[in-house]
Amino acid sequence: MIRSMVLLLSTTTAVVLACGLALAAPAHLDAGFDGDGKVVTDFGGNEEAQEVAVQPDGKIVAVGHASPSAPGNEDPVGTQDMLVMRHKADGSLDGSFGNAGKRIVDFGPGYE
């Protein structure tokens, strides 16, 4: 009875995180969450999600960091910016947040 969210950790590795109650039988993925019980969110580079929170309205927020190869991150190689994504309770990206549900935040030099 757990919904799962797959967050891309690199271009080849993903992790499944528990994200709240669902209607599936115990130990089964909830097909009502993105059609198969899991979702992969890719920022187009090498990313790592580090924290996940479920808001009271059921929306799921994940934060982590993105490498310079991610679109929107123009920093020099060796630096990383914060990434934030928000999904609706059904697993789809929340288009009312950031750029189609995703956002890269650059705090400037020295904060990477």
Write a brief structural summary.
The chain is 0% helix and 38% strand. The chain is mainly β and 112 residues long.
Structural features, described:
The model is unreliable at 6-18 (pLDDT under 50). The strands form two sheets. A four-stranded antiparallel β-sheet has the order 4-5-6-7, with no helix packed on it. By secondary structure, it is mainly beta. It has one domain (2-105). Helix content is 0%, strand content 38%. It contains no helices and seven strands. The protein has strands at residues 2-8, 14-21, 40-41, 47-54, 60-66, 81-87, 102-105.
Q: Topology, pairings included?
A:
Layout: E1 2-8, E2 14-21, E3 40-41, E4 47-54, E5 60-66, E6 81-87, E7 102-105
Parallel strand pairs: 1-3
Antiparallel strand pairs: 1-2, 4-5, 5-6, 6-7
Helix count, DSSP H or I runs of 4 or more residues: 0
Tell me the β content. 35-45%
Total strand segments:
7
Q: Summarize the amount of helix as a percent range.
A: under 10%
Structure characteristics:
single chain, 112 residues, four-stranded antiparallel sheet, three-stranded mixed sheet
